[in-house]
Fold this sequence. Notes:
The structure holds three protein chains of three kinds.
Chain A: H1 9-16, E1 40-42, H2 52-56, E2 62-68, E3 71-77, H3 86-90, E4 96-98, E5 113-116
Antiparallel strand pairs in A: 1-4, 2-3, 3-5
Chain B: E1 4-8, E2 20-26, E3 29-36, H1 44-49, H2 53-61, H3 68-82, H4 89-117, H5 121-142, E4 151-152, E5 155-156, H6 162-188, H7 190-196, H8 204-209, H9 214-218, H10 226-229, H11 250-274, E6 292-300, E7 303-311, E8 317-323, H12 325-337, H13 345-351, H14 356-359, H15 376-389
Antiparallel strand pairs in B: 1-2, 2-3, 4-5, 6-7, 7-8
Helix pairs in contact in B: 2-3, 3-4, 4-5, 4-11, 4-13, 5-6, 6-11
Chain C: H1 3-11, H2 16-37, H3 47-57, H4 68-86, H5 103-124, H6 128-159, H7 164-173, H8 182-195, H9 207-210, H10 220-245, H11 254-278, H12 284-310
Helix pairs in contact in C: 2-10, 2-11, 3-10, 4-5, 4-10, 5-6, 6-8, 6-12, 8-10, 8-12, 10-11
Amino acid sequence: MSHHPGRMVGELLRHSVRQPATIRYPAVKADLPDKFRGRIQFIAERCIGCRMCMRDCPSNAIHITKEGDKRFSCRIYLDRCIYCAQCVDTCPKDALYATMDFELAAFTHDALQRDYDAPPATAEPEAPPAPETKDSEGTGPGA
Amino acid sequence: MANVTIPVGPQHPALKEPECFKVTLDGEKIVGVEIRLGYNHRGIEKACEERTIVQSQYILERVCGICSHSHSTCFLMAVEEAGKIEVPRRALWIRTLIGELERIHSHLLWLGVAGHELGFDTLLMYTWRDRELVMDLLALISGNRVNYNMNVLGGARRDITDAHRAEIRKALPVFRERTAYYARVAQEESTLIARLSGVGRLTKEEAIFYNANGPTARGSGVDRDTRRDDPYLAFPELEFEVVLDDHSDVYGRTLVRIGELMQTYDLIEQIIDGLPEGPIGPARAIRRVAAGEAVSRYEAPRGEDIHYVCTNGTDKVERVKVRAPTLGNLPAVVRMLEGGFLADVPIVVAAIDPCFSCTDRGIRVARSQGQDVWDADALRAYAIEFYRKRGLDLTRVKAPGR
Amino acid sequence: MGVLVALYAILIFPGLAFLSTFGLVAEYVDRKLYARFQNRMGPPWFQPFADFVKLLGKETIIPAEANATVFKVLPAVAMAAVVTAMFYIPVWDNRSLLGFEGDLIVVIYLLTIPTLTFFLAGWASTSLYAAMGAVRSLTQLFAYEVPLYMALLAPALLARTWSLQTMARWYTEHPAWMLANLLGFLVAIVALQGKLEKVPFDIPEAETEIVGGTFTEYSGRLLAVFRMAIDMEMVVGAALLAAVFLPFGLGLHPVLVFVLFLAKVLFLVALAALLRALFARLRIEQMVDFCWRILMPAALLQLLLTVVLSGVAP
């Protein structure tokens, strides 16, 4: 075996004319795998308020609040979330799912709180006129 | 020049995590080294005692960013042993597969870091590019690149499909070819050899005396590998060789890691060929665990990971104790650095593949004024006062937290 | 030469404006090629310029312990020395702006000044890392400077002149003799990596060992000027090598000669980028060892060859 400097010269010259391995992120987005665990999304209509997700969340990032009869609102703290998606596995009614959304940086903790309102009450008109959900993009669990 | 003491860390470009090496120099030669731990203590063990086992598993997975699966598996192995929980065979094999894929990504990452510490950024760029292949495989199987979250108590969280196996099979020849190429580069590029050879010497006797583990010990010819000595998961059924090298320096450790990569490819091939059929986990999620205690050992890419777990019959653990591989290797680092050159500090430290945050311990500092523990408010008040004396008003800066 | 022409030469061409622009272009070529050798995308064309502007806008911090005047003056000294050196190198013709008999020696000395300012800058910073970098850059200076000079002297010896423009004229008349200096050319390229403090000789500013080396304490505008001086030094160093070792095509139309000059310099910059990508950084004692044991004998051999050949040279 011979020792000499510049062992990688062939490799370097060959690659200098090839397509680069890097991409122009963020102008070009990378592909995400199907099972990617991004921001957690809440579907209020499905929630039965068992609060198993709150119990299993390692970082205390989910809060389910009872708003009325079988109506629950949810607040998710994205700054606390560690994106393990255990809540998605735990939920017996598939009311939570992981989106493909991962570019979540923000300047304040408040901007990282996501509120999901309870569904409007079916009979009673006293449904609180809560603010709109800040975000609703992402694909559903069935999509 | 008289002896000078240079602090390498806690903020230093060579270290990706805060740790302090106080290096005393005579010119360029090192005459003394002092290590200080504890800059990034996160209180994970305590946090686990307050959480259920289901939660703790995710917390412990985040002890380390690189060997995340190692910590999670090591912890669950201990819990399962303490609580006498049977794990299906297929789940054991899946855990092993992820563990070995993790070893590929860790060792390729290390090779790149070693290149960077030596100013050989080209090696860094190429190894990390090839590492993307295994990152993609891990993301394909588990969903994410770094924290795979592939374990549940008593099984695996996700299955390996035939499509996954085909992808892995397709990637293996590429890995083998690239690794063989890096092995040639490491053994032929003379500037690299000049910087690796004879640097950070640790004889076999010293390696045993200072309790080095993992590739650090094997690079000094210590024949020690938990996968063979105390086989866990699927390892009793798998065949592989423990890679040893008797160069006893950074060069030896490099060759050990490259050799281990080759063994890992063989292991992965055996796993995807022989993956047994059957369930991958318990039908219903296990939450309560019978009382008991256990120690589990796991050969993480960086060395031997040890978890001690004591369960108390509830869904929480009484006590978890983590010993990350780096803690075992740190005493040897002092020995390796002594008598060397300042220029070699980064590579010698990097050669144990350190993970300081995994290692950090809390230290209670006793203060003479009777106030020995400061809470956040006291620290904040002290900081405001400290900067006020220097003409900076920090009262308007909001305290962090929610 | 009139005052206006002199001012034009100093400030515009081939002085400050031209050199700084070309320096940034050379930095771009260097970084882009370095990236492409590593299979990366590399920066967009305006990146060096953007970096420079950004640095200009940053706060300049001067260490309390440092001698503020020295600390502030040094970057300007480095830049001035490099720009001055450029006036003696033929750019668009086989004549240079201020050429005289013996200007080769002057250029060599002018190009040593930046390294000395690096040393002083590190020393004046009164920081441990900077002082380590300063000592290293001086140690390194003694190692590469001698082989570099000897390699540069060989072509001069062959042309029997110490003047860059006389040399250029001589080689224009006898272009084949250029090949006699090939060994010296290789030695000079390697030694130039040392002068420019690039891998494998980036020991004085080894990031993973001593943070920023001599420039650890420099920030903002002062650092911008230093970095610009280094970019210019890269161009002038390459131009010197091009003038001494690649003196072909100098008799053509001035525009062509100028284009050829740019091409030669960029070729040398590309070569430097390749070298930078190829090696691991050496330790200081390995570097000194390499310079005295390998570069030095090679330079001596070139000199010997030149002495023998000059007997038969026209």
